[in-house]
Amino acid sequence: MKKWYISFIIIAMLIASGCVGEKAQQKAEDIKIGVLITYTGGLAQFGEAMANGAKLAAQEINKAGGINGKNITLILEDTGTDPAKAAEAAKKLIDVDNVQVIIGAVSSSETLAVANYSERLKVVLISPSSTAPSLTNAGDYVFRVVGSDNLQGDAIAQLAMAKNFTKAAALVENNDYGIGLENVFKEKFNGTIVKSIHYEKGKADYRTELDTIKKAVPDVIIYVGYPAEASSILQQTKQLGLKTNWIAAEGIADPGIFQNPEVASQMEGMLLTKPSSPEQSPEYQNFLKLYRAAYGKDPGIYSDTEFDAVTLAALAIKEAGNDGEKIKNALPAVSHKYKAVTGDKSFDENGDVPQDYTILEVVNKTMVPIGSWNPATGIKLK
Predict the structure, then answer these.
(1) Domains of the chain, earliest start first
(2) pLDDT tens profile 201-219
(3) What is the pTM of this model?
């Protein structure tokens, strides 16, 4: 009888211990936020730094007491920079993990691939980096904390005209990002489009496309794409002896692209546009300090917007509760009060935000700011 009683006590203690452990885990994971990230594929170069931005936001929120005493747990899924994989990853986050908000996706085509399912299930998407104009009408549950390429396309057109370029060739990836930005550029550019090429990702050889451009004799090439393909294309321009001016969108505006010396040398003198952050603001300086302390290096492109996206999601959950429809309804008001790292992130009726752009020039493997673009004042070069 005594042995039975001792055994009963031990079993009871184990059960109680298990319950306590389970409750502690539930508390730690009480508020789950999904994150679609690109650790692999065409935007793999951006993945780690963007994930770090999301993790840093969650750490800061949890350090400050979480959301009403509950910690945030991020569930990160690699999309491979592939729309089909992004859709599957989003379904897993929604159906298995039961998240009510997803940060992502990274590329526009991925976010558009996720949007229909997210909209139907009433789960909020907040992209830190998807810029295609078509996202404006992707659904009531779709938001982004970076400007539409309706703005960036205008900025690139004004930059080309400010540099007195009159004959442009467009070399853009055959996806929503590339074609969407090209369409805006064509509308805003006062010169002639001598050639338009929509290239396919993942090819080893782009000499045919580049030779076609060379024969058209443009005075500037407008490039929209991602680092993996850009590296191949830029190396092959040297092999073909294609010498002209380049203006590239933010898809390659990250110093990581200089890792290949041949690519770096071909980019010398290239102009780029990149969404601006108010780097001298107290909010950005604090973010920079926190990021350097946590990761021992400077943030990459879209680390800061990833931070803002996670923080906005958390603030909306705190305001309205962890429910997709309530989060969606709360986000506009929350965004107007939030002092964002990346400047004004006030959502309009379409989930879009205002955006300024920095103009960069590649000088000795460094992207040097040489001007800016603002929707109200236009292009300003130093």
Answers:
(1) 29-148+279-355 (3.40.50.2300), 150-275+358-381 (3.40.50.2300)
(2) 999 999 999 999 999 999 9
(3) 0.89
